[in-house]
Amino acid sequence: MAASLLDVLNLEVHYGGIAAVKGVSLAIEPGEMVCLIGANGAGKTTTLKALARMLPAQGEIHYRGERIDALPSHALIGRGLALVPEGRGVFSRLTIAENLAMGAYHRRDGEIAADLDRIHGLLPRLRERTSQLAGTLSGGEQQMLAIGRALMGRPKLLLLDEPSMGLAPLMVQKVFEVIRAVAAQGVTILLVEQNARLALEVCQRGYVMESGRITLADSSKALAADARVRAAYLGA
Amino acid sequence: MDIFLQQLINGLTLGSIYALVALGYTMVYGILGLINFAHGEVVMIGALSSLTFVRLLENSGLPGTLVLLIGLLLAALVCMTLGFAIERVAYRPLRSAPRLAPLITAIGVSIVLQQLAMLIWGRGYHSVPALLPAGRHEFLGASFTNVQVVIVVVAALTMVGLTLLVNRTRLGRAMRATAENPAIAGLMGVDADRIISLTFVIGSALAALAGVLVSANYGIAHYHMGFILGLKAFTAAVLGGIGNLAGAMVGGVLLGVIEALGAGYIGDLTGGVLGSHYQDVFAFFVLIVVLVFRPSGLMGEKVAERA
Ligand SMILES: Nc1ncnc2c1ncn2[C@@H]1O[C@H](COP(=O)(O)OP(=O)(O)OP(=O)(O)O)[C@@H](O)[C@H]1O
Ligand SMILES: [Mg+2]
């Protein structure tokens, strides 16, 4: 088997004595766009945080042929793994320009300015407000900024945690257009969403998570047709 | 002699020193939410170790200003190493402990440093040689010395430098990002531990400078000089809004001026009952008033609950 971009084996995460992720395994191939759906509290955010090494976890995480489960969180972006966290996590007391610069913090190459231009092209609202404090942006704009900031790090694998959370439908559409454009540029994406309908629409494949375990894994088409998924997540 | 102008000048001098020390408190608080009560002792170590280096070089034939500069640089190295070690040994292991634990440790570190200094430099007061060219200038009925000019100018330049570092450089941006959210900064590749170490190191360099300046101002240094100075600088940081760099600068200068003016007028105000040696009262009076009416300080945000 050719090595996947990301191979997760038996991931387990505990908060105190309570298990939140109970032996999750998943694999993502280069160029794929995969979603992880599930109800509130299923353990989706916990899974992504563990993959980004923000939480102690058991199990194996293989990324581009390397075990990253013992690396510190700050060593990942240099290897091309980025997380856009739940709640966006922009630096509210930094300007938009500074937030984007933070995205390129680990880089020393000469193409940062060119990437900034490209990202401004993708997210024109950010260009108009470069010196505005990020805390004063609307929720949708903050989400755009969080994605733009992650892109400034030139990720190969982008983990997205509920980019649609708290946004008006029109804004959700815009954010997902951007995500599609990012995927089209060849960035591999693992998307966590509660909005299962939307997630299955944009992704080729999906995993369904229930109380800390993966209960279903299939193509989006098959999942969308699955009676259990329809009943639990698609309101049908 | 114009007492108002004179005390304003004296207050400005003292206040610039408070500001330098207050910056150390505020930088650490901004990034860790921790009050490093040992910081005042780092100022003391800076003053006394520079004195030791100066004594070693005194008869070398080098010009006084150069001797002072070398003493300052070596003292800064001592303090930077000390600040680095304090964070590693006393605070890092308690990163996830309840808030009270590092606070108590900080007090412990203060006591250890004071006792250590007493063993090395003794209990006595040391006179600090005047290494800058002496000079006194008259100005509208008030007077000031070369030393005072040097203190104010050096402190001001240092603060401008620090402001540029924090607001305009890649490192400064990472410091501000880490202060706001270390976990997210980590996702951008920022090693928060490194940034925290650097914060202590920079704060300690400022402390060394303050120690050298304050001992040059008074002409004396002793092993317990860091306590009251640290407490006042902490007051200045709270006055300006702890966690806020500009606040520490403004708070420091303001406190120095309030204290000097208070000392100048307290005799008149109390009909001679209280003399100028009561000047320390003003700092703590200011602290109490600020905590009551504006707990977040002049320029700060949320403080009461975390402190
Ligand atoms: N810091 C924490 N301490 C203790 N328990 C936690 C913590 N964070 C999450 N949990 C628990 O872990 C479980 C999984 O939470 P998680 O945030 O991963 O779910 P989620 O699938 O992302 O949910 P949502 O869709 O609401 O974001 C939940 O039961 C939650 O209560
Ligand atoms: Mg979540």
Strand element count of chain A: 10
Mean pLDDT of chain A: 95
Give the low-pLDDT segments of chain B: 303-307
Proportion of strand residues of chain B: under 5%
Strand order of the largest sheet of chain B: 1-4
Span between termini of chain A: 38 Å
Instruction: Report the count of strand segments of chain B.
Output: 4
Which structural class do the helices and strands of chain A define? alpha/beta
User: What proportion strand of chain A?
Assistant: 25-35%
Helix-residue proportion of chain A: 25-40%
Overall geometric form of chain A: globular
Give me the secondary-structure category of chain B. Answer: mainly alpha
Mean pLDDT value of chain B:
92
Could you tell me the radius of gyration of chain A in angstroms?
A: 17 Å
CATH topology of the domain at 6-87 and 155-233 in chain A: Rossmann fold
Indicate the CATH class of the domain at 6-87 and 155-233 in chain A.
Alpha Beta
**What's the N-to-C terminus distance of chain B?**
43 Å
Order of helices and strands of chain A: EEEHEEEHHHHEHEHEEHH
Can you tell me the CATH superfamily of the domain at 6-87 and 155-233 in chain A? P-loop containing nucleotide triphosphate hydrolases
- As laid out across the biggest beta sheet of chain A, the strand order is 6-7-8-3-9-10
Hetero ligands = adenosine-5'-triphosphate, magnesium ion
Give a topology summary.
The complex is a heterodimer of chains A (236) and B (307).
Chain A: E1 6-15, E2 18-28, E3 33-38, H1 44-51, E4 58-63, E5 66-67, E6 81-84, H2 96-103, H3 112-122, H4 124-128, H5 139-151, E7 157-161, H6 169-184, E8 188-193, H7 196-202, E9 205-210, E10 213-219, H8 220-225, H9 227-233
Parallel strand pairs in A: 3-8, 3-9, 6-7, 7-8
Antiparallel strand pairs in A: 1-2, 1-4, 4-5, 9-10
Helix pairs in contact in A: 2-5, 5-6
Chain B: H1 3-32, H2 39-57, H3 64-91, H4 100-121, E1 126-127, E2 136-139, E3 142-145, H5 146-168, H6 170-180, H7 182-187, H8 192-218, E4 220-221, H9 225-240, H10 245-269, H11 279-293
Antiparallel strand pairs in B: 1-4, 2-3
Helix pairs in contact in B: 1-5, 1-8, 1-9, 1-10, 2-3, 2-4, 2-8, 2-9, 3-8, 5-6, 5-8, 6-8, 9-10, 9-11, 10-11
Bound molecules: adenosine-5'-triphosphate and magnesium ion.
Adenosine-5'-triphosphate binds next to helix 1 of chain A.
